[in-house]
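does this look right to u?? adenosine-5'-triphosphate version
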Amino acid sequence: MSALWTSDDAVAATLGTLVGGDPASGFAANGLSIDTRSLKPGELFVALDAREKVDGKIVGRDGHEFVAAAFEKQAAAALVSRDVDAKGPLLQVANTLRGLEDLARAARARSDAKIVAVTGSAGKTTTKEILRLALSALGTTHCSAASYNNHWGVPLSLAAMPKSARYAVFEIGMNHFGEIRSLVGLVRPHVALITTIAPAHLEFFGTCEAIADAKSEIFEGLAPGGAALIPSDSPYAPRLIARARQSHAAQVLTFGETGDARLLSYDDGHVRAEILGRPVEFHTGAPGRHIANNALGALLAVASLDGDVLNAAAALRDFAPLRGRGARFGAGGIEVIDESYNANPASMAAALALLGASKGRRIAVLGDMREMGDDADAHHAGLLKPIEDAKTDLVFLCGEHMKALWNTLPAARRGAWAATSADLVPALKLALQAGDVVLVKGSNGTRLSVVIDALRDDAAKRGASA
Ligand SMILES: Nc1ncnc2c1ncn2[C@@H]1O[C@H](COP(=O)(O)OP(=O)(O)OP(=O)(O)O)[C@@H](O)[C@H]1O
Ligand SMILES: [Mg+2]
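got this back:
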């Protein structure tokens, strides 16, 4: 297999200087890493400086401190911007983030892959993973790892794209204006897809209209002839369509309950749809209408790339719910839906709908949604409707903003409220009984993973004593 980056190609891409190692043989790297804890032999270590000032204090570390450790773990070379005491080939550039972006640009320029970029307030990783399965059925597919969607995650993912990839999918995130614009300029996708617009990061943006405009920056980086894919059910769809046209997207297509890819029926993972006028039937391994909706967006992307939609759709049978995003486990006769990874009003509603479709006593354990701005309490209280729609039997809440929801909850649905997720565990455990289905969801910072761990531990103990 040919190397991802030879020293000649990396020098040409970055205009850096190769020092150290054996100058005659240079290096050949088979991957990229910014973290020596996960670095694999043969990878190029990129020494990013992640230090920043927070409240007058320096937090984070400078990757240059770890170059020696990278070589101990058999890194092929290191990308650096200052002298380091390490034995091995060093590619010296003025700034390593800029050097990484240069590698990303070169990887894009030399690639023949058809490229999809995904953004949105919720469902980016889910849609990216659905696309990974769908496109892998058609050809070699490269995707961003995890949620690597920020100023270093996108160039890192792009610079790691093999020359042989036929398809590639990149997740792009943001928390301020201009961020997506610069990242999509590196990716230059043939298809740009927005999953949803929801009140997330409201603290920074103020309104959902502003969020929609910021996400729409993804259309500005479309390659000539490219397609903009927009969720038709979003209240912001007209705004997104106008932005896509303003960006001169060659095609503007929609997906959802109506649109160019539309859902005809959904029943427990079984989807009947019409995509660009053609009927398609498929099964998703993970349940939920929101998953079906993400799948429609993904299959519309496949159709926009002239891919074989029927084969791509058949591959979605293998789509399993992701950890913290709907993965389920049994805990002593109780079924737990682990949605502890993140939360905003849109993903809360989607997850509660999942709970509503479950059989058994329905219990919701919900934690604060972070970064919701001035109207945070109203957004939390607004969860009452999806809770009632899901016929939730009991609700357990933690966090200061969840008090607003607690105050609107009818007494019959009240489980308990606590300040932290850990404080909520005892009351929850007392209430649970065999046959219950328990949805656990909150922003990462609210640490609902503590509840998940407690339920797992409990089940393990009961299993051990049985
Ligand atoms: N189309 C959708 N609409 C609303 N909620 C969704 C949708 N797809 C997924 N979700 C919900 O959003 C949660 C997060 O999903 P995912 O990790 O795919 O989002 P993300 O946009 O990648 O998040 P992050 O910004 O943290 O990377 C899931 O657990 C699920 O509850
Ligand atoms: Mg993500």
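The chain has a mean pLDDT of 95. idk if thats expected tbh
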